[in-house]
Amino acid sequence: MTEKKARIAVLVSGGGTNLQALIDACKSGIIRSGEIKLVISNNASAYALTRARDNGIHAVFVSRKKNGGQEGFERKIKELLEKYEIDLIVLAGFMSILSADFTSRYPRRILNIHPSLIPSFCGEGFYGLKVHEAALARGVKVTGATVHFVNEIPDGGEILLQKAVAILPADTPEVLQKRVMEEAEWKLLPQAVEMVSGDIITEE
Ligand code: GRF
Fold this sequence. Notes:
Blueprint: E1 6-12, H1 17-28, E2 34-41, H2 47-54, E3 59-61, H3 70-83, E4 88-91, H4 100-103, E5 110-114, H5 129-138, E6 142-149, E7 159-166, H6 173-203
Parallel strand pairs: 1-2, 1-4, 2-3, 4-5
Antiparallel strand pairs: 5-6, 6-7
Helix pairs in contact: 1-6, 5-6
The structure holds 5-O-phosphono-beta-D-ribofuranosylamine.
5-O-phosphono-beta-D-ribofuranosylamine binds near residues 15, 17, 92 and 177.
């Protein structure tokens, strides 16, 4: 009898290294209570789409422009989530804003990975390399990553997991980003996805 697994959609915009960590975690058994059924990107050239397709996962580009703006963009995404009967949405390097109307439909069912220790260096305008540039500019000695539930406040939802990463004197934003990914993001996100997927399948 095949065990019930949470059906996961991953929303991406870029290189997809966090998606890759999730794919690898499903293969290694770190994630066993969920399976990735769908990948959606707002960026047609996102390498994350290639990573999905290379692993037999349905991958879709959804254009904000071609769907007539934010409302149509979110409608299309909701249609896909329903079609694939998705239980859990994971934002993994997803660089597009989702409205309060959208996030309020999925309470405690949307996760995001942010490359700092929230509440530091988060919110409006803090994404990607900008987060690490801000940490280096402030001179903090420790940074890290956070997985949190997504609500209507950018990076404002309940914090699930965090992991600290040391900043070294010679760090550049690029070097620091890579260390935060390797030592924190790629470990935390699979762990959080397994935790929430496990909760989902036990509550059903
Ligand atoms: C990275 O800055 C990561 O910290 C953040 O999104 C960016 C791209 O990640 N979560 P990915 O390689 O596309 O997963």
